[in-house]
Write a structure and sequence with these properties.
With 257 residues, the chain is mainly beta. Helix content is 9%, strand content 49%. It contains five helices and 21 strands. It has helices at 7-12, 121-124, 143-147, 240-243, 248-251; strands spanning 3-5, 14-19, 22-30, 41-47, 52-53, 56-57, 62-68, 71-73, 76-78, 82-86, 95-97, 102-108, 116-117, 132-136, 153-161, 164-171, 176-179, 185-199, 202-204, 209-213, 219-236. The chain is globular, with a radius of gyration of 18 Å. The relative contact order is 0.18.
C-alpha cells in the first residue's frame, strides 16, 4: 500500500502540545491508522526556541529528518538536513533547540503511542537489539542550483546495512531516477527537500513524502521543471524480539492484512 504525506493534510492536523516545559506543535502529514504491523506515519514536530527534549525512547523503529532551525543532539550540532535513526527501544537525546524554532519530521512505518522518558526505562524497556545512526545530508539546494544541473547527483547519507539506509538524489529538470529497495528493508520513505517530483502519479513539493513497501520493488521519480532534491529513507524490519511482545493474534498476521 502506497501512502502520501502532504502539506494540505498537515494544515488541518496541526496542534499544540504542552510538554517538556514548552509548547511544541505537531502536524500530521501522513496517517494510516494504528495497526500494530503496518501503519506508515509522518508528522512534523516544531520545538520552541531554547527548549530541551529530554532523553527518551520509542516502541517502534523511526527516522527523524531535521529540516529547519539549528540546535544540538546530545553533544553534536544539528541543522538542515540531519538524518537520525533510532531503532525500537533505543534511547536517544537530549535534543536542544537554538534561538529559533527547530523543525523535524518523525517517520515510522508502524504507529507509535508516544515517547517514554529514559527515567522509566527500568520498568518499560524490553531486551533486544539497540540501533541508531546519524548523518548530515548537507544544506538543501536552491531551485536555481537544481535548474542548472546537467546530470543526476547521488550521495550515500547512511550506508545500507541490514535494512537501514539513506540516500540523497539531485535531479535536473524533468530527469527520472529509479529508487531501489535494499535487502531486509520494510520499505522506503521518499521526501522532497527542494523543487518538485512526480511520484506514482502524484506531484510532491517541499517536505511532502511517499512511502513504498519493499515488496513494491523499484520506484520511479521524475523531477519537475525546476529539478528536484529528494532523500529516501530505508526503514528496517522490526526486530523479532519486539514483534514477540505483540498479542499473538497480531504477531501472526501479515502486515498487508
Amino acid at each position: 500500500m502506497i501512502s502520501f504525506g502532504t502539506r494540505s493534510r498537515s494544515e488541518s492536523r496541526r496542534r499544540p502540545l504542552n510538554m517538556m516545559g514548552g509548547i511544541f506543535y505537531k502536524g500530521e502529514w501522513m496517517e494510516n491508522g494504528e495497526d500494530s504491523l503496518y501503519s506508515p506515519t509522518v508528522f512534523l514536530a516544531e520545538q520552541p526556541p531554547n527548549c530541551e527534549l529530554a532523553p527518551h525512547f520509542h516502541r517502534q523503529n523511526q527516522f527523524q529528518l531535521f529540516v529547519e532551525g539549528e540546535g544540538s543532539f546530545g553533544q553534536e550540532p544539528i541543522g538542515p538536513v540531519t538524518v537520525h535513526y533510532a531503532g525500537a527501544y533505543t534511547g536517544y537525546g537530549p535534543i536542544l533547540s537554538g534561538d529559533a524554532w527547530l523543525k523535524y519530521f518523525t517517520i515510522r512505518a508502524v504507529f507509535d503511542t508516544g515517547l517514554t522518558p529514559n527515567t522509566e526505562s527500568r520498568e518499560k524497556m524490553i531486551r533486544g537489539p539497540k540501533r541508531h545512526a546519524k548523518a548530515s545530508a548537507g544544506q538543501p539546494w536552491t531551485v536555481e542550483q537544481l535548474s542548472a544541473l546537467q546530470s543526476i547527483q547521488h550521495k550515500t547519507v547512511i550506508a545500507a546495512d541490514a535494512g537501514l539506509g539513506a540516500e540523497l538524489f539531485r535531479l535536473p529538470p524533468n530527469a527520472t531516477q529509479l529508487l531501489l529497495p535494499i535487502a531486509a528493508s520494510f520499505g522506503q520513505f521518499i521526501f522532497v527537500l527542494a523543487g518538485t517530483s512526480l511520484v506514482d502519479g502524484a506531484t510532491l513539493s517541499l517536505w511532502e513524502s511517499a512511502f513504498f513497501p519493499a515488496e513494491d520493488g523499484e520506484v520511479a521519480i521524475t523531477a519537475g521543471a525546476q529539478g528536484a532534491e529528494v532523500i529516501t529513507l530505508h526503514m528496517p524490519e522490526t526486530a523479532g524480539q519486539y514483534l514477540a511482545q505483540l498479542p499473538s493474534s497480531a504477531a501472526t498476521e501479515s502486515r498487508q492484512s
